[in-house]
Amino acid sequence: MASLPIFLPSGVIAIYGTGTTQSPSGISNTSEKGKMRWGNVYQIWNGGETFVYGGDNVMFNDDDVVCRLAYGNIPYTLVPAKLVTVQDNLS
User: Fold this and answer.
1) CA-CA distance, 85 to 19, in Å (whole number)?
2) pTM (predicted TM-score)
3) How far is residue 23's CA from residue 39's CA, in Å, rounded to a whole number?
4) Residues 6+ apart with CB under 8 A from 58
5) Cα-flanking dihedrals φ and ψ of residue 55, to 5°?
6) How large is the C-alpha radius of gyration of the chain?
7) Which residue, of 38, 39, 63, 79, has the fewest CB within 10 Å?
8) Geometric angle at alpha carbon 68, from 62 and 52, rounded to 5°
9) Average confidence (pLDDT) over 69-91
């Protein structure tokens, strides 16, 4: 997996795209608030311990987004790693 040409801040991960309201396994948000999104981890910060890895499917709150950026016309969402929930691998 290629990476963005930047060093991510401490504890921050990059999610490919802007996230969706439903996970690939079919889990969806039924809350009226509708702030939870699903995305695929593209890149993790360089350094320290982490519990998420590139390729993991995670849930995050849209209010916790550090920023959204684009590289090569592809959007990426940056969020603190400690605020994501990893979906178990169903296989």
Assistant:
1) 13
2) 0.85
3) 8
4) 13, 15, 38, 39, 40, 41, 52, 84, 85, 86, 87
5) 95, -15
6) 13
7) 63
8) 65
9) 86
For residue 42, the surrounding DSSP H or E stretch is: strand 36-44
Q: Which residues pair with 40 in a beta bridge?
A: 16, 57
Quote the DSSP letter at residue 28: B
30: Cβ contacts below 8 Å, ≥ 6 apart: none
Place of tokens 């849209």: 62
Q: Compute the distance between CA of residue 80 and CA of residue 52 in angstroms, rounded to an integer.
A: 11
At residue 15, does pLDDT exceed 90?
A: yes
Note the pLDDT tens digit of each residue in 26-51.
Answer: 888 887 776 899 999 999 988 766 78
Beta bridge partners of 78: 14, 67
Tell me what pLDDT residue 85 has.
84
**Nearest one of 83, 85, 72, 89 to 2, comparing CA atoms:** 72
| Residues in the chain, total | 91
The two three-digit tokens of residue 30, written as one number: 């039924």
